[in-house]
Design brief:
By secondary structure, this protein is mainly α. The chain contains five helices and two strands; from the N terminus they run H-E-H-H-H-E-H. GO terms for molecular function: calcium ion binding.
């Protein structure tokens, strides 16, 4: 379980180009962090995360989309 602050820190680390979104490429560049995201969102892969939670279908995850995924999995403290 993660706090919102921990989740934001993780998101910022994954967002290598600092554009406010985490792309599939950024997720694959950090396999360890991607595993943490998968466990916090109860998804099995970055692709599944995108399919389920990329609400605007732009091919990336914003912090709000990630936060919603973690909240849905009941892992946000």
């Amino acid at each position: 379980m993660a706090t919102e602050q921990e989740l934001q820190s993780l998101f910022n680390t994954l967002d290598r180009d600092q554009d406010g979104k985490v792309s599939i490429n950024e997720l694959f560049l950090s396999p360890g962090l991607s595993a943490v995201i998968s466990s916090e969102t109860n998804t099995s892969s970055p692709q599944e995360l995108l399919v389920q939670y990329d609400s605007d279908e732009d091919g990336s995850i914003t912090f709000e989309e990630l936060k919603q995924a973690v909240e849905k999995a009941s892992n946000l403290t």
